[in-house]
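Repro:
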Amino acid sequence: MLRNDRPPSTLLVSVRDVAETQAALAGGAALIDIKEPGRGALGRADNAVIQEVVASVAGQCPVSAALGEWVDDSAPIAAAGLTYVKWGLAGCQRQPNWRRHLGRYLERRERPQLVLVAYADWQCAQAPAVEEVFALARDHPGSVMLLDTHCKDGNNVIRKERPTLLDWLPLAWVEDFCGRCQEAKVKIALAGSLGIPEIRALMPARPTWFAVRGAVCADGDRQSAVQTEKVRQIVGMLQGIVPTSLSVS
């Protein structure tokens, strides 16, 4: 269900270092997310990098950190200054303990707040289905979810070089899902190699955040550096400053 009474979405930008952090802030990013894209969908940055980025943001906006996949490394980090942390659930499809462990984390209501990650390509990632992850979030009002993709290249059943969220899930389903999150008092970030066309199509769903990296990097390459002007253009589009009918390059 589409709800026009929700506030407009804001932009989350994933960064790998201090220089990218400052570029994202200058462009108007509302949330800085720390990850190392060379280590996968939710690649965990070195602890020193996380500390440097938090210090660089200096309270200007919330900061989150990707901590990799739960099955690979569920160790906590020195979390001073972080608002959110998240682990991916790739490989957890047949390991129900993820629900118990993450549920306990949610019940403790500790800071930084845990973000529950659901992969749209959950079968490819051998992760729990999106609805399973949402069920846990729904049981804990005030939770935060990230709907992302795990398979970032052409080595997947779609056989597309860089499949997006909307290659895995229908637009109408994602719109309905955002409405259900709103009704359950769950904040939702939409990610998954989203570019301008996908963000434009999904804007009516009004997720809490659109989460991007490649879309704001040089040549659309998530391994390249974040560029201020690309961040500024998407922020402008979300705020209605740049008409959605125009191409944002």
